[in-house]
Design brief:
The chain contains eight helices and six strands, in the order αααααββαβαβαββ. It is of the alpha+beta class and 284 residues long.
Length: 284
């Protein structure tokens, strides 16, 4: 062999001998340990697994350099397994964190919802209190106005009594002197559009019961028509004839008979309800 050819041959053989031999298990272990090392959560969630994987990988590297492939494969397997365990730990930690975040978000949403409900309940209570206060003030104002009309509180509600002097004897036509009283009642009803009235006619005991019932109803109707003529809705007015059945004084004297001959105007509460319910009796 020529010297030049011999030199080239020796160089090639030396290069081949110096080229590092690769091992698949070791390459895989290196990649997995590197992946674990680069994970930001490794030091927190998998510090022991990372340390063990690095030690096993170093042992595999040492065994491989010494030509002990069997030991290198064993330690590379350990390094891969430990790295995989570390990645699993990290995944578990991430899952727990996600669950904790989801629970925190759920609690936040629930707290906000409860806070909104509490605020709504507070506002509703305030509104109810304000409405109750306003209603109380309205009732007080209405009570004052009714008292100015000379109405008096009774178990039937506020009652205004119109004397027999508003009518001629045995007649059901209002005298001119009744105009002022009727005007004041109509003005009150116009100012309180939810208020209703029951107008009851009453007589003394002279005459037959049938006649007295008819006369008492006609007198109640006369007052009702006078209110309607002043713009009060007929649906707000009930006219009832009570006849001689509800005296307020003895019919044995002229003074008592005059007190019994009367028309009573019963006012509802501000919502249109009467203390003793809807009227009964002889009605128009």
């Amino acid at each position: 062999m020529k010297p030049a050819i011999l030199v080239v041959t020796l160089v090639l053989l030396t290069a081949c001998a110096a080229a590092p031999e690769q091992m698949e298990e070791l390459e895989q272990a290196r990649a997995q340990v590197q992946m674990l090392s680069q994970d930001p959560m490794a030091s927190e969630a998998a510090s022991r697994e990372l340390s063990a994987a690095r030690s096993s990988l170093q042992a595999a590297e040492d065994a491989f350099e010494q030509g002990d492939r069997e030991a290198a494969a064993h330690f590379a397997y350990l390094a891969s397994t430990q790295a995989q365990t570390g990645m699993a730990r990290i995944s578990e930690q991430q899952s727990r964190q996600q669950l904790a975040q989801a629970e925190a978000e759920r609690n936040r949403v629930l707290l906000e919802a409860r806070s909104r409900e509490a605020e709504q309940a507070r506002l509703a209570a305030e509104q109810q209190a304000q409405a109750a206060q306003a209603a109380k003030a309205d009732r007080a104002e209405i009570q004052k106005k009714l008292e100015e009309l000379k109405a008096r509180p009774t178990e039937r509600g506020m009652v205004l009594t119109l004397s027999d002097l508003l009518f001629d004897t045995s007649a059901a036509v209002l005298k001119p002197g009744a105009e002022l009283t009727i005007d004041r009642i109509a003005e009150f009803l116009a100012q309180n559009p939810e208020t209703r009235v029951i107008i009851e006619g009453h007589t003394d005991s002279r005459g037959s019961a049938e006649y007295n019932e008819e006369l008492s109803l006609r007198r109640a109707e006369a007052v009702a028509r006078a209110l309607e003529a002043r713009g009060i809705d007929p649906a707000r007015i009930d006219a009832v004839g009570r006849g001689e059945n509800y005296p307020v004084a003895s019919n044995q004297s002229a003074a008592g008979q005059q007190r019994n001959r009367r028309v009573e105007v019963i006012f509802s509460d501000p919502s249109g309800r009467f203390a003793q319910g809807e009227p009964t009796g002889i009605r128009r």
